[in-house]
Design brief:
By secondary structure, this protein is an alpha/beta fold. The chain contains 10 helices and 16 strands. Strand 10 (288-295), helix 7 and strand 11 (318-324) form a beta-alpha-beta unit. The N and C termini lie far apart (111 Å). The model is unreliable at 33-84 and 333-348 (pLDDT under 50).
Length: 430
């Protein structure tokens, strides 16, 4: 009996042992070392690359997808298209009402380039974007760091030529009353006048204040009397009786033939522009600096040279605009100078177009009083419609080398006006 009981107990214990062995899963078989294993990491796929379609298909995919149905990223996504535009990053564009509120980087030379764009009919062109402009310095493309179409407040140094002939000066006097209407309350104006020397009639004052009209009234002058006796004729040296001079002061003396010596005229335009520019350079940054000249453009007797004055203007971001009057107010003056036509008398006597072209300004040629008045409004309109471009130059501040600036617009049949270049200075450090 005991033997039978022991046999039954052994049978049940054997069955329980077999059930326990069946509930334990088999351990995975060891895999041979290869490219997909951890034993050879240097042959694994590097980030961002693929070993080919076979390697992708042999790897298991998540979610139970069979390896034969998996695809590589190169099959599902196309390669990015190449952008041929050199500048990809947009410049600083201030919001309306926040003109000038942009990032300032210290220790970098910031170059401000006001640019005016006109069509073939000489009409201002608006609506251009920064993507349509290209700026070059010494032939090298520059990244546009700042772009704005908002008009900046204007600081204008108004220079009046009082050495004009009396008839031309009379037209200028009558037209100056319309100057104040071309400015806004945010603008400021200073007035200078020159004849044989330069004088400041008023320092910068509000364009809509009561002081400015009174200053323009003081700037009026009678001009120069152009009546000069020309040699030749019976009355060339005055009245004579019995071949003797009635006026002993006109009688021929030893060493001369009795002709009247015409005194040399003095038109110190360079000195006048430099004096006005020195005051204009003290105006705060964030304002458009404009030097407005109303003259016939004649220059003689200045202590300052043209090159010296242009260097100062370009260093301090000053643009020269103006109205040509008198015998210099001929068609094409200021535009013919672009082609450097030789032996043109008006160009030799009139240096004002050279100032305008070098600094990115503009000129209006007017004969009549009404035309002179309209020129004030046209000039200020072009100043306010100018695009403001800026870039950071890599030129050294201590160098006095002139750097050529070229601005192009990728729109056909447009005329772009900007300053010729700049001279590095400490004032350009931002």
């Amino acid at each position: 009996m005991q033997g039978a009981l022991a046999a039954v107990l052994a049978f049940f214990m054997l069955g329980a042992f077999q059930q326990q062995q069946q509930s334990i899963p088999d351990a995975p078989a060891p895999q041979p070392a290869g490219p997909a294993g951890l034993s050879n990491l240097k042959d694994q796929v590097t980030p961002g690359s693929s070993t080919g379609r076979d390697a992708v298909q042999s790897a298991p995919t998540p979610g139970g997808v069979p390896p034969s149905q998996s695809t590589s990223s190169s099959d599902t996504q196309s390669a990015p298209q190449q952008d041929n535009t050199p500048q990809q990053e947009a410049p600083e564009v201030p919001k309306p009402g926040e003109t000038g509120a942009y990032l300032i980087r210290t220790g970098i030379t910031y170059i401000d380039v006001p640019t005016t764009v006109r069509d073939k009919k000489h009409q201002l062109v608006a609506g251009l974007t920064w993507r349509q402009f290209k700026v070059y310095e010494d032939g090298q493309r520059q990244k546009i760091a700042f772009f704005s179409v908002d008009p900046l407040p204007i600081s204008t140094a108004f220079v009046v030529d009082q050495s004009l002939p009396s008839d031309v000066m009379n037209k200028v006097n009558q037209s100056m009353s319309a100057v104040t209407g071309a400015f806004t309350p945010a603008d400021s104006v200073a007035i200078f006048a020159y004849n044989s020397s330069t004088s400041m009639i008023t320092d910068f004052t509000g364009a809509q204040g009561a002081r400015l009209p009174a200053a323009f009234q003081r700037a009026k002058s009678s001009g120069r009397d152009m009546g000069v006796v020309s040699p030749g004729g019976p009355l060339d040296n005055g009245m004579t009786i019995n071949n003797k001079q009635v006026d002993p002061n006109l009688a021929p003396q030893r060493g001369n033939a009795g002709f009247i010596v015409i005194p040399k005229e003095v038109h110190p335009l360079n000195d006048a522009i430099l004096a006005a520019a020195k005051q204009l350079a003290q105006q705060p940054k964030g304002r458009r600096r404009v030097l407005y000249v109303i003259s016939d453009g004649k220059e003689s007797g200045s202590k300052a040279s043209y090159k010296e004055v242009v260097r100062y203007l370009l260093t301090n971001n000053i643009s020269v605009y103006g109205t040509l009057v008198g015998d210099s107010a001929m068609w094409g003056v200021g535009y013919l100078d672009k082609w450097h036509i030789p032996l043109l008398p008006t160009m030799r006597d009139n240096i004002l177009p050279k100032y305008a072209l070098a600094t990115g300004g503009a000129l209006e040629s007017q004969f009549s009083e009404n035309g002179i008045q309209n020129s004030f409004a046209k000039i200020t309109e072009s100043v306010r419609a100018a695009y403001t471009l800026g870039y950071y130059s890599h030129a050294g501040m201590m160098s006095d080398k002139f750097h050529k600036i070229t601005v192009n617009v990728e729109v056909p049949n447009l005329d772009v006006t900007a300053k010729d270049g700049y001279y590095p200075s400490a004032s350009m450090q931002q």
